[in-house]
Amino acid sequence: MPYSFTEIEKEKGKVVGLVFFFLIVFYFVTAIILYWSIKSFSILQLNTESERLIIPYQWMGICPKEIMVILCISFVVGIGHWFFSVNNLVEKILGVLRAEKLNPQDKYHIMFQHIIDEVSIATGGTPLEGVVVPTMAMNAFAISDFNGRNVVGVTEGLLARLTRAEIETVVGHEVAHIVSGDCLTTTVITSLFELYNSIRMSLGQMISNAKAQRAKTDVLIYLTYGILSVATFMGKILHMFLSRQRELRADAVAVRLTRDPLSLAQSLYHISSRWRGAGLSGENLEAIFIVNPRFSSLDEKQGLVADLFSTHPPISQRLNTLLDMAHSDTKILEKKFLEQQRAARALAPEMLTSLPLAPTSNKKDWIINKDGEWQGPFSLQDLSAFDWMQADTWIKKLGSDRVEQAFENTEIRDLLWKRTDQESFRCPKCQVDLLPRQYEGVTLYQCQVCGGSLVQERDVSRIIIRQEYDFSPRIKEIARKFYQEASKKLPHIDLTRASLYPCPKCQHIKAKMLRMLYSLVYPAVIDKCSFCGFLWFDKDELEILQCMIEEATQKNA
Amino acid sequence: MLVGIVLLVLVVLIFLSSVGLYNTLVGMQQNVKNGWSQIDVQLKRRHDLIPNLVETAKGYMGHERQTLENVVKARQQALDASGLKDKQQAENFLTSTLRSLFAVVENYPNLKADQHMLKLQEELTTTENKIAFARQYYNDEVARFNTSAQIFPSNMVASMFGFKSFDFFETEDPSERQAPKVQF
Fold first, then answer.
1. pLDDT tens sequence across A302-321
2. Is the pLDDT assigned to residue B11 strictly greater than 90?
3. What is the pLDDT of residues B71-108, one digit of tens each?
4. Mutation test of the interface with chain B: which of A3, A118, A260, choosing the one with the most B Cβ atoms within 10 A?
5. Which chain A residues touch B if contact means CB-CB below 8 Å?
């Protein structure tokens, strides 16, 4: 590591202290200006000379006593603001970004968790937490708080598009911010003012809507909008405390941790050539991201103004430094990027392959060790009912000398794995049990008779973002025709009661699933349960929706 | 009198800087030990995963008994090994047998598509990476400590208190993590 921990702590304390001092000064100056304007206005209202008292030692008509009172008030307000912002700051930022916890069943999330653990080891065991932002955009961020909580987040788009080695370097970059201590400063600065920009933007939207409809807007809304605009401006000023060189330092530390400058250069190239999240909630928290979500011409400039107010150095500068380390050049990067884009993908399987499950036998030929005592014999069916049985429980088959742990035996291991998926869902059309399948890294439940599938709502967007499989010409043709027709006229939704499905999960007889359009832009008809949020897709419907969105986004890109 | 004061100041200064150097060396030594324990944890994790892997592969790979037996044998050797040099050798052998096993797995499409195998493969990939990173951290810390223990003036404190250099955890195959070489 380039810094020792004492240096980091000192540096951290210094910058955070400066930011706090700046906050107090900001409140003091604002209060003085406000007080002065009110006072001068009220003095002008007075008519006689005698009423305008002249007090000694006054400054701009404000005496030292008043200055002291204003200072005390700004100190109290500043401390209040500070503690309000700093309290629970990680959760607040994650809320604005709409970040979600990792799903331990999701293939991509498992890989991301592993990468985080790996990089943590490379730093000597820094505790790290991972989150994902469910969006197609590509970006990554890191935030820390005063309690030592460190969170590294990536978007689903980044997880789906980058290779394992590339994601590793991105995480390395974010972790570099954490270990070098600048992450806490960035998080605190972001939480002080910029966090409220999303409220300002929605208020701005409200005001412009009201103007368009020629309706009256409350003065309070204008006032709040004004205050939040000042806060956003202050946020920009606070960027002065953030050196844009910190991104270059983090790139260097990431290379030191992962020993892979080429993959980091590839990730930066990839991220900067795609949509980085402009327009999403949290886009203004630019300082915490690896690449500024909004394209800013200031970021690409050199010089004093850019150095002072820009949060990121020019991408070309970062790429050149990394490519120098890797003895490579941008031509190779471009070539690799295009190759990756054109790489052939496997076709999405018509019917997903099943998880291999062992048949459960009724023969009582297993004894197991519970709390140091051998019990049994039991059949496999009996074993599946024991919820205390874990992967490391000792087992023995009758007639065999081998004593082993549950996970070492394929039959028992299958049983343990099956138990986690034991919830049974029924196909609303064929009335047979739906079977769990892996598709685009998530678990969905498919009917082996009609091919329909049941998917959790949050997983639908993940399936759409991930482009592991290609589609057959048949699906592509249907999707194209459907999209063309739907752009002229929205499809008809059959709402007759008999045609509606009961939810395969909740299985209410009376309450049926709601039939609706996926969105107005992509008007595929879907069935959604309002109780559990699961979505039902008839055969091919999910692939058609995926294909339609993929082709439309490629066309727009 | 003046000479006395100067001497006293010098002695105090030497004493204080020795204390500082001693504490730094102890801190570095702790980092090296922490690095070693990280490697140990990951190696143990790899040993625990192998029986599971062999069980899953056995069902599909009837004709490749030799490869599987090699992995089991290498694991046993790694478990029995004691001392850094023996351990290094055994672990490197285990890495190479695992690599040949995964090369063979490529020829069995059913095994490759097996959900358990996919999970195990991801587990082993991450464990291999963790071992590599833990080794990298350990070696970096060893290099820092060894350099400090050899350069003046900390080498005097090191020899006075009997600090000994640590051995690196070396890998047989330098291209193990297929990343380009970095030039700082």
1. 777 777 778 888 888 899 99
2. yes
3. 888 898 888 888 778 888 888 888 888 888 888 887 88
4. A118
5. 107, 110-111, 114-115, 117-119, 121-125, 164-165, 168, 255-263, 325-328, 353, 355-356, 407-410, 413, 417, 438
Q: How far is CA A455 from CA A270, A440, A528, in A?
A: 30, 12, 10
Residue A465 CA to its chain's centroid (Å): 13
On the 0-12 / 13-18 / 19+ scale of CB atoms within 10 A, A543 is buried
**CATH architecture of the domain with residue range A100-337:** 2-Layer Sandwich (3.30)
Q: B32-160 architecture in CATH?
A: Up-down Bundle (1.20)
Q: Which of A459, A422, A441 is nearest to A537 (CA)?
A: A459
Cα distance between residue A355 and residue B149, in whole Å: 56
Using CA atoms, how far apart are residues B98 and B43, in angstroms rounded to an integer? 13
CA distances (Å), origin A530, targets A495, A503, A508, A511: 16, 9, 11, 9
pTM recorded for the entire structure: 0.78
Q: Delimit the domains of chain B by residue range.
A: 32-160
Please give the structure tokens belonging to residue A235: 């946020």
B175 touches chain A (CB under 8 A): no
* Segment A253-308, tens digit of pLDDT: 999 889 889 999 999 998 988 888 877 777 778 889 998 888 777 777 777 777 77
